[in-house]
Amino acid sequence: MNNINFVTSRVVSTWPIENSTKDFSLNEEFPNSTIDDDADSFIEDEYIFDRTDVRAIFITLYTIVFCCCFFGNLLVILVVTLSRRLRSITNFFLANLAVADLCVGVFCVFQNLTIYLIPSWVFGDFLCKMYQFVHSLSYTASIFILVVICTERYFAIIHPITCKQILTSTRLRLVILGVWITSAAYSAPKFIWVETITNNLGDGHTETICIQHRMKYNSEIFDMVNFVLLYVIPLCIMTVLYARIAVGLWQSSHGLQQMGHTQCCGAQKNASATTNKSGSSKKNSKNQEGRNCYHLSHLSRNVLRARRGVVRMLIVVVLTFAVCNLPFHARKMWQYWSSGYQGTSDFSALLTPLTFLITYFNSGINPLLYAFLSKNFRKGMRELLFCKFHGKRKSDNLILLNRVGGTGLRRSSTRSTRANCSTVTVAPNADS
User: Fold this and answer.
1) CB-neighbour burial class of residue 18 (10 A; exposed 0-12, middle 13-18, buried 19+)
2) Is the pTM of this model over 0.70?
3) Could you read off the pLDDT of 197-217 as tens digits, one per residue?
């Protein structure tokens, strides 16, 4: 294969950035041996992944991430599907996020690991394309779903009336369908750009590699667009919306405290006046007013606690996504724009798989975040693991707050299709 520059899987890439569109260029995951322009000599340097301790460490880390991605997200999908208390619009979105993360575990994690441990791609041309396609699909769908969740929470908490009128359950499901279709369309070119090629190493030895054909697109422009369009802009949007939600929750908390104090003081004054007029026969009515006042205050605190719990969990999920995907984008920018990047160093050989590993770790940590930050998710997971799902009970009824800073509370059943737009729904004894 004359006049073809590419990088195989046994020596750190020395492919210059300015020549990245010449003939073929290997995807940056494939790090190792080079073949010169005449394909006459094969140079093999000491490869850090030939060390047993390094291989053992990465196999262990990748296995842990795979187990979290596969079993954790499968558990989330089953819990949201089977648990009545978790059948809300927000949790429906989180289940779709779990589907994207599950695809990462199935199609990306171990496939990426084999690139560094096995000299040749062994999964065939279709899985080569699927590996790149699902990697792009899951990331694109995840960031879009997080933006949709943030937008839905913003309208549900800040503009509940608009939410009821516009963000119906049917429309939100259509939005999620549109997210998957858009993500698939955005990632579809991977099936055109990615292919396997076989390199003749001489002496009857061949090596198959999974590469992106960079004659068909400009990788620098594509990665820059990805960084801005699918990282910077969505995070800026979510930062603004969650900041507005936080302000709205604080104002709601302050308003409910004042409302409770005013209603309780008014109830006590009315009860005192009635008692002065009617004597001891009205003491029971006074006690009842006091109990109602305490009950109203208790319900208000429960609603606010649930709001804060849900928003806190979503903010942590977004921050985790931003932190885990930043090293991948930072390495790309460093590789393209820094003159100090050395593809032949052991540091670069370890940095590339570590950035992929951290990205995959984001897909595996989300179920753990739900378990730690949501009491209802913990209950649903325990019920699923111990097969203790029951039918609907009276205690499953929800308490809804009509509006932010509203003037009253009302009870509603879980059967309401627009309950999620009534700001927040919480179980009487649940935090989130």
Assistant:
1) exposed
2) yes
3) 888 877 778 888 888 887 778
